[in-house]
Write a structure and sequence with these properties.
Largest sheet: 7 strands, mixed
Number of helices: 10
Strand content: 15-25%
Number of strands: 18
Radius of gyration: 25 Å
Helix content: 25-40%
Order of helices and strands: EHEEHEEEEEEHEHEEHEHEHEHHEHEE
């Protein structure tokens, strides 16, 4: 089954008309995108958008062989004239299946938001799922096999991928394409980076792909360390890297700190950001979690883990530190980094970067700063991806 993407942008396109934002200003050349529309085998058109005939011609395709036009958007289609020779656009009711004379079978998938999703099976059995902007499937059952290709609003609804992965509709060889791309994320390297973390990719308008060719599927890194200063956005970045995956275990190393209202406010803000399918455990006992099989871990954060570890070995007492505390802490850090090296789980860990600021005025503060620097360096050495977040912007240090 051959797919031509006549457009890959949001309904208003990218850049948006009359939008002065930085993302729209940078959306030039291959980063400029028309509203999403798909042409399958020259016979099935999913979504009719302005200039579809010209977009097909630029891609070396023609709409003259289109036998069916189906709409996915919540509305009944754009305010455009139907090109001569094309059938009138329609919509398949949720749960119903349409069979074309060309051998394509199209089943309408119910959404949790207005709009219609379409599962298309080609004449040779390849399977494709196309979701409308802002939508995720509702009431999914586990399919007999994973889709060969999924096209979805990955940036706007990453939880749609999590739902599909939970029922194995997305598998290791599924090619996940981001469509309905808007100005939420700057185009270029930043978009590529964010999509790759979700196991997805984007292609320019006009590209033709063979459904079932999965050699370009991005490999999701197993181990990632996200560093940053206070309020830099490091926790948001870490959470974003796993929001497209189901059953994430959020490991909070700071505890609840009863009576500390400021800390309680921070904890509440973190909880509100997390998807409802995530579970939370409050513990600093990370080694057993890393050794176990299970869903992805998000550890927030290593700096609080270190505080607990230094408390437990008496690191704040100079005499205890010199006699046995330093050696005991080194052993704790070694156990943690070795567990990270051999873990089979997907792990995203957060830590503070404190070595670039003011030198602490106390010996204990300098000791903590030094030990956190050593911990970050040892932990980063075991990770495929290491990021430094500055002013909400992620700088890739490794990966």
């Amino acid at each position: 089954m051959e797919l031509t993407l006549l457009g890959t942008g949001a309904p208003a396109g990218l850049p948006r008309p009359d939008c002065p934002c930085a993302a729209c200003a940078a959306a030039l050349g291959p980063d400029a995108r028309a509203a999403t529309a798909l042409l399958l085998d020259g016979a099935l058109l999913l979504d009719l958008t302005p200039g579809a005939a010209f977009a097909a011609a630029r891609a070396g395709r023609s709409l003259t062989g289109v036998a069916q036009v189906l709409l996915s958007h919540p509305h009944n289609g754009p305010a455009v004239e139907v090109p001569a020779g094309l059938p009138q656009p329609g919509r398949v009711p949720d749960g119903r299946e349409l069979t074309l004379l060309t051998g394509h079978r199209v089943r309408a998938v119910a959404m949790d938001a207005p709009g219609t999703g379409y599962a298309v099976t080609g004449p040779e059995g390849q399977r494709l799922l196309y979701l409308p902007p802002g939508g995720a499937p509702a009431g999914l059952a586990e399919p007999a096999e994973s889709y060969d290709m999924v096209l979805a609003d990955v940036v706007g609804r990453p939880d749609a991928l999590a739902k599909l992965r939970a029922v194995r509709a997305i598998g290791p060889t599924t090619d996940v394409l981001a469509v309905h791309l808007d100005h939420d994320v700057p185009p270029g390297p930043e978009l590529v980076r964010r999509l790759a973390a979700a196991g997805a990719r984007a292609v320019p308008d006009g590209v033709t792909l063979a459904v079932g060719a999965y050699e370009d599927v991005p490999d999701v890194p197993r181990r990632t360390l996200v560093l940053g200063g206070a309020r830099s956005g490091k926790s948001v970045e870490a959470e974003r890297r796993l929001e497209a995956f189901p059953d994430v275990l959020y490991v909070a190393t700071g505890g609840s700190r009863n009576g500390d209202t400021e800390w309680s406010s921070r904890v509440a803000a973190h909880r509100e950001r997390r998807p409802g399918s995530w579970q939370t455990v409050e513990t600093c006992d990370l080694v057993p979690l890393l050794k176990e099989e299970g869903p992805p871990l998000l550890v927030d954060c290593l700096s609080l883990w270190l505080t607990d570890a230094m408390d437990s070995v008496g690191a704040w007492d100079d005499a205890v530190w010199a006699e046995r505390g330093e050696k005991a802490l080194r052993e704790r850090v070694r156990e943690l980094t070795e567990a990270m090296r051999v873990t089979r789980r997907t792990v995203v860990a957060v830590s503070n970067e404190v070595g670039s600021g003011i030198v602490p005025s106390t010996a204990s503060g300098r000791r903590y700063r030094d030990e956190l620097g050593r911990l970050n360096a040892g932990f980063a050495a075991e990770c495929e991806h290491v990021l430094l977040v500055v002013a909400g912007q992620a700088v890739v240090l490794r990966g």
